[in-house]
Design a protein that fits this description.
The protein is an alpha/beta fold. The protein has helices spanning about 5-15, 30-35, 50, 65-75, 95-110, 125-130, 170-180, 195-205, 225-230, 245-260; strands at about 20-25, 40-45, 80-85, 115, 135-140, 185-190, 210, 220-225. Strands 1-2-3-4-5-6-7-8 form an eight-stranded parallel β-barrel, surrounded by seven helices. Helix 8 links the parallel strand 6 (about 185-190) and strand 7 (about 210). The model has no long low-confidence stretch (mean pLDDT about 90).
């Protein structure tokens, strides 16, 4: 296994034109799996509330909950760079609050960097966290915490088809440059699209990665591990275009397990009589 990935190593990947692979993970076992698969960034997303806990929006997640989830992920990762989202609140409350939150994530959860949603509106906080010696993964574009300004409801997923308008290219390029100047180590450009995304990636020296709405025009991609493997109940009725359909595999396995129990047979993996 190669040595642990660092922020400078990921930044060097952009200069070398090597694509950066990022996944969003919320538990220890998946963290171990993706780390062994060789991804570069493991991001602990605040969308855990919606996608794993069934909450209606991303605002119910607390800092204490993010720390618990990040601790589990950190235990499972030995190679990749670990990032953790701020939940809604610490960034919006000002630079001092942002620094306190970042320190908690580093000290209590052991993360390597922190991800700030809507960072372009809080450049002073980005700079303050950077001055504290904590790398910032700055998220901008159509994000879960800033979707309303684009006429979209707050949600964990504004939709893979949503893209920032091409006429916003100049404004978003300047936004990216300001984030870099403030001290951001990486940018997460959500729902970038090929026009604005390519322009932004070419305008800054730090890596620009993205999830929904991203593509080969960026320096890398972010994807929820659960989305990549088709792990959602909805995949049973509407098979997604993903790399697997773990929902179907899980459903079939639990169905077979239930049939063995009801038939009075020993279950697979159980003790033999």
């Amino acid at each position: 296994m190669s040595s642990q990935i660092t922020v400078p190593a990921v930044q060097a990947m952009k200069r070398a034109r090597k694509k950066i692979v990022g996944v969003v993970v919320w538990d220890y076992q998946m963290a171990r799996i993706v780390d062994r698969a060789g991804v570069d960034i493991v991001s602990v997303g605040d969308t855990v509330g919606i996608n794993l806990w069934g909450q209606p929006n991303p605002f119910e997640v607390t800092m204490d909950q993010m720390i618990v989830v990040a601790q589990a992920v950190r235990r499972g990762v030995t190679r990749a760079l670990v990032s953790c989202d701020f939940p809604f609140g610490p960034l919006q409350e000002g630079p001092a609050s942002a620094v306190r939150a970042a320190i908690r994530l580093v000290k209590e959860a052991g993360v390597d960097m922190v991800k700030l949603d809507g960072a372009a509106d809080h450049l002073d906080a980005v700079a303050a966290v950077d001055r504290a010696g904590i790398p910032v993964f700055a998220q901008f574009g159509i994000t879960p915490q800033t979707a309303l300004r684009y006429g979209l409801p707050y949600s964990a997923n504004p939709g893979s088809g949503a893209q920032v308008p091409a006429e916003m290219t100049e404004a978003l390029v300047e936004e990216a440059k300001r984030l870099e100047a403030a001290g951001a180590a990486l940018l997460n450009f959500t729902n970038s699209g090929p026009v604005v995304g390519a322009a932004v990636a070419g305008a800054v020296s730090i890596p620009v990665v993205g999830g929904h709405g991203g593509g080969p025009w960026l320096d890398g991609r972010m994807r929820m591990a659960t989305a990549a493997i088709g792990y959602a109940e909805s995949a049973l009725d509407d098979p997604p275009e993903t790399y697997a359909n773990v929902a179907r595999i899980s459903y079939d396995a639990i169905t077979a397990y239930a049939e063995d129990v009801r038939a009075g047979q020993q279950i697979k993996g159980g003790l033999r009589a």
